[in-house]
Amino acid sequence: MAHKSLSENLSGEWPAVPKIVDHDERRLELVDATWRIIARNGLEGATMREIALEAGFANGALKPYFPTKDTLLEFAFGHVFNRTNQRIASVTEGKSGVDALRAFCLEVLPLDEERINEARIVIPFWQKAVNDPQKAEIHRQSMEEWLAAIRRHLAEARDEGKVRAAVDDSVLAGQLLNMLLGAQIEAALAPAGQANFGHDAQLEGYLTLLAHP
Amino acid sequence: MAHKSLSENLSGEWPAVPKIVDHDERRLELVDATWRIIARNGLEGATMREIALEAGFANGALKPYFPTKDTLLEFAFGHVFNRTNQRIASVTEGKSGVDALRAFCLEVLPLDEERINEARIVIPFWQKAVNDPQKAEIHRQSMEEWLAAIRRHLAEARDEGKVRAAVDDSVLAGQLLNMLLGAQIEAALAPAGQANFGHDAQLEGYLTLLAHP
DNA sequence: CTTTATTCTCTACAACTATAGAAAATAAAC
DNA sequence: GTTTATTTTCTATAGTTGTAGAGAATAAAG
């Protein structure tokens, strides 16, 4: 058996022999290299050879950690999702209502180089997901979580009296989510450097719309 | 010379010999086949062989009409864009203000099978455009046109007194455009059949938001 | 240094790709 | 039917891809 499953080697099960590589950590290294390649050269440039090279290895070195390319890509995409969600959790912690809503959106919007790169990752992911139900399910689940969080913040904001619009919260949440997704596209397709399309102004404008009954 | 440029053969320049195929029409046939393949099997399934087969030809028959695959894809994407824009023009004709705005959005939103298929085309296009400046430019130009149209309708709607929100029209136009793009993603990634995510309700809700100062 | 299990490199391979171009089929004009 | 230019098929090619697996390199333990 050449390939150890996640965290199987953390407990030191083969004491007779040296354990050199932390498989989980190596997987993250490889995912990071993949991420960089896709952001720089697009999904089509992310061949196994190129990924291995970027990570500093030769052609076949990926196999023990990811049996197939699809495994690697799925793990890579999932990792970006998780990281974004962690950032969201950390930024909205302790906040509620409009403050939480604003923090949430500012964290998702492609307002700096790093998040613009994430937008360049998520679009290839969507393209794969269009014809891959398993990847589509990852997306569906994340979006459901996001919608729930947005609705929660909206409800709090209504209690604060800062959202008074005569439109159902579920509808508002859908609008806001779609605005966030659309911003990803605009940012990813904008010529390098000239990025900001006033996404922050759009967010503030939308919060203004919500405030008036 | 085997490949005639667009509409070069409409005037009958070689009267000595039979002219059998209308090159422009054949190009549209091939683009249609391409469209069907991408909608059904994704961009990765759209190989030259598969496209030729779908159109009822053998492997090499595409060459006289499109010298390279990239030429074909670019033409195909451009054609979908043009068709959508024509539909928009036809639907908003004679309308103005909120009516025109609503018609515009309803025509773009993925509310029926055909437009959901268009969403399944545009996502692969975006993915290509992320690393292809020429395709990105096609997108940029279309979006600029759309933004201009939306702003025009918003201004009319303000004159009618049906838009009274205290937010700049440019910002509103950006919000609405991003909502439309986001809806494409949601629709393209939704499991087949279960499509409608309440996009029409989102539109009506947004128009409600705009109406109140 | 020897042993030993792991990790990595390297080569190989089968599948598939876009593309090129020779040859065959085609259909109007005579 | 014959001619003629066009249209299409068919085969070939050069390149790339994911994957497999043998062997070398590696590093800890004795």
CATH superfamily of the domain at 95-211 in chain A: Tetracycline Repressor, domain 2
**Ends apart, CA distance between termini of chain A:** 64 Å
Q: Cα-atom Rg of chain A, whole angstroms? A: 20 Å
Helix count from the secondary structure assignment of chain A: 8
Structural class of chain A: mainly alpha
Instruction: Tell me, briefly, the overall form of chain A.
Output: elongated
CATH level-1 class of the domain at 95-211 in chain A: Mainly Alpha
Work out the largest interface and the residue count of each chain.
A-B, 52 and 52 residues
Structure, explained:
2 copies of one chain form a homodimer. Chain A is an all-alpha fold. Chain A contains 8 helices and no strands. In chain A, helix 1 (23-41) crosses helix 2 and helix 1 packs across helix 3 (69-92). Chain A is elongated. Chain A binds a DNA duplex (30 and 30 nucleotides) through residues 2, 14, 16-21, 47-49, 57-61, 63-64, 67-69.
Attribute tags:
homodimer, Tetracycline Repressor, domain 2, 67% helix, DNA-binding, disordered N terminus, elongated, 213 residues, mainly alpha
Task: Give a short summary of the structure.
Two copies of one chain form a homodimer. With 213 residues, chain A is an all-alpha fold.
